[in-house]
């Protein structure tokens, strides 16, 4: 029975894996985004966002740096609320602004988050199968290697796109202006300038993925053995994912704090220089922000 299950899994095509990843990503974002919207509204209430202020927006798939622009009072994160807590904010936002407001800011972030998630999970599945054929399906190093490499690859591919997205959001560039800005930056600092902020993201995401997938596969095997089943059920997969995600999040929390602070300071430094009418060179981040 176990052999039959492995055979069926091996027949899963790349297209099927990509579609499954995409569907899972959308479902995850629909559940997690309202929590982050409420968190952001509570933060804005206690410490109002000024022009150029950066905050982290998470849709459950990846973190996005958002830059407050022009003191726009109509922006979803600046709407008044007078909330007393998470539950009070949930009720008031739903009653006054409609249920849709709980997913404010989601569509633009999915442009980056969906491709990242599809690349990540599809690469993990493909790498896992390739490593199993070489190292044996019971090798405990497979989840670590596949998780680390797939996350490293997805972050590397998407990092320049996220940099461009944030810059477009802040400066309101046309595509032509954006092209000229990027071209001049590449000519001045080289192609690696498009991957600024990449190192702090990799230092957080790669260890997280390695720990997550190792623990996920390990817990799954234990639960299958305890419950006497050869194939993991939804409960086994859910419990394994929740436990491994919690452990990885706690251990990599210091890296997450460093990543968030570095990226928000980098963009707040850029907005400050931009307000003074100066050209922003993100490569000289350390010199500009001291």
Structural account:
- There is one protein chain.
- The chain is mainly α and 290 residues long.
- It is 71% helix and 3% strand.
- It contains 10 helices and 2 strands; from the N terminus they run ααββαααααααα.
- The protein has a two-stranded antiparallel ribbon.
- A hairpin with a 4-residue loop joins strand 1 and strand 2 (63-67).
- Helix 2 (14-46) packs across helix 4 (106-135) and helix 5 (142-171) crosses helix 7.
- The longest helix has 33 residues, at 14-46.
- It is globular and about 55 Å long.
- It starts with a helix and ends with a helix.
Features:
290 residues; 10 helices; globular; disordered N terminus
Brief rundown of the structure:
By secondary structure, this protein is mainly alpha-helical.
H-E order: HHEEHHHHHHHH
Largest sheet: 2 strands, antiparallel
Q: Would you count the extended β strands for me?
A: 2
Gyration radius from CA atoms, angstroms: 21 Å
Name the poorly predicted regions.
1-9, 276-290
Strand content: under 5%
* Morphology call: globular
Task: For the largest sheet, list the strands in their spatial order.
Answer: 1-2
Average pLDDT number: 80
- Give the termini distance in whole angstroms: 62 Å
Work out the helicity level. Answer: over 70%
Query: What class would the helix/strand composition place it in?
Result: mainly alpha
Number of helices: 10
């Amino acid at each position: 029975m176990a052999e039959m299950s492995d055979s069926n899994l091996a027949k899963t095509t790349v297209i099927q894996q990509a579609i499954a990843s995409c569907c899972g990503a959308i479902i995850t974002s629909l559940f997690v985004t309202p929590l982050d919207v409420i968190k952001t509204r509570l933060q804005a209430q206690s410490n109002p966002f000024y022009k150029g202020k950066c905050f982290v927006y998470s849709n459950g798939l990846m973190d996005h740096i958002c830059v407050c622009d022009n003191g726009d009072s109509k922006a979803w994160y600046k709407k008044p609320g007078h909330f007393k807590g998470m539950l009070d904010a949930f009720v008031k936002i739903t009653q006054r602004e409609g249920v849709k407001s709980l997913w404010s800011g989601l569509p633009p972030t999915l442009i980056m988050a969906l491709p990242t998630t599809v690349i990540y999970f599809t690469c993990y599945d493909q790498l896992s199968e390739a490593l199993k054929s070489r190292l044996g399906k019971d090798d405990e190093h497979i989840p670590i290697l596949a998780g680390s490499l797939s996350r490293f690859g997805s972050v590397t591919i998407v990092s320049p796109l996220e940099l461009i997205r944030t810059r477009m959001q802040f400066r309101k560039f046309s595509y032509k202006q954006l092209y000229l800005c990027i071209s001049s930056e590449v000519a001045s600092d080289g192609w690696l300038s498009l991957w600024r902020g990449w190192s702090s993201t990799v230092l957080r995401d790669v260890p997280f993925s390695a720990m997550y997938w190792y623990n996920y596969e390990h817990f799954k095997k234990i639960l299958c053995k305890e419950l006497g089943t050869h194939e993991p059920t939804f409960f086994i997969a859910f419990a394994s994912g929740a436990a491994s995600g919690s452990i990885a999040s706690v251990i990599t929390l210091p890296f997450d704090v460093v990543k968030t602070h570095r990226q928000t300071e980098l963009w707040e430094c850029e907005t400050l220089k931009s307000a003074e009418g100066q050209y922003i060179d993100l490569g000289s981040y350390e010199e500009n922000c001291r």
